[in-house]
Amino acid sequence: MPPCFLERISVLLNMDKLLLEKLKTLTILYAEDEEGIRKNIAKTLQYYVKKVIEASCGEEALTLYQIEKPDIVFTDIMMPGSIDGIELVKIIRKENTKIPIVIITAHTDKDYLLKAVHLHLEQYIIKPINLKNLKETLMKCVEVISSHRSIDMHLPLGYLYDFDNKVLSCNGEEIKLTRMQIAFFEILLHNKHRIVTYDELQECIWQDQVMTDSALKSLVKNLRQKFPKEYIVNLSGIGYKLVDR
Q1: Which DSSP category does 24 fall into?
Q2: Does 4 score more than 80 pLDDT?
Q3: E strands along the chain, which residues?
Q4: Which of the residues 19, 55, 141, 147 could staple to 100 if both were Cys, CB 3.0 to 4.6 A apart?
């Protein structure tokens, strides 16, 4: 395959990884009255996000929304009580026009669909859920959130990293990074649960240039000075990873 095609594939894969990393920092409120369905879908959502808050009816969902301040709302339409899914979305939209809202329902009735159209939804998913559609919907929600606010990744020992603005901070104080340090740090973040090999560092950071031992050691040494000891660990002969504590 031509290099330009491979580069486009690499960019797309990195974007996908970035969105998935951002998802892991977010909280979803999911309202569904059928417990079996709710538990199954919540378990799937939990794989992608930081936290899933479950509600069994519209009233409970509204209370939890006001207390927990979730980043994304998923809701069924037909629920018992005075607040169904449509009414829940209407109430939330009165105070928050930006939060991504997704309706998951078995309903295909045109009246419900027409009501939902005017509620500024990110997606309308018909049960049973297709996992591919669910992931695409979650990724779309992240893009919507990123368009109006930064999504910070929380790291060990009080560190935060803003992927969009390439800003590392600790206790509110910004830590300056060079372009190479950002590239190195981000590849470790994208793969924080495993060792990043020397070959991967060569391909992703140095690319067409040669990654010498001295250049790599200098980069890591300077970056380590901006973190506590052992924040970046090395497995001799293999590569590097971030400490996971």
Answers
A1: T
A2: no
A3: 27-31, 51-55, 72-75, 101-105, 123-126, 152-154, 159-162, 167-170, 173-175, 196-197, 232-235, 239-242
A4: 141
**Inter-CA distances, 103 with 30, 123, 241, Å:** 10, 7, 39
Facing residues of 152 across strands?
Answer: 162
**Residue matched to tokens 């009735």:** 109
Three-class secondary structure assignment of 97-153: CCCCEEEEECCCCHHHHHHHHCCCCCEEEECCCCHHHHHHHHHHHHHHHHHHCCCEE
Calpha distance 88→115 (Å, rounded):
12
pTM over 0.85: no
Domains of the chain (ranges; CATH) run 3-148 (3.40.50.2300), 152-242 (1.10.10.10)
Q: Are 240 and 233 in contact (CB under 8 A)?
A: yes
Q: What are the residues whose beta carbons fall under 8 Å from the beta carbon of 108, sequence distance 6 or more?
A: 126
Residue pLDDT, tens place only, 149-196: 877 888 878 888 888 888 999 988 899 999 999 999 988 888 877 899
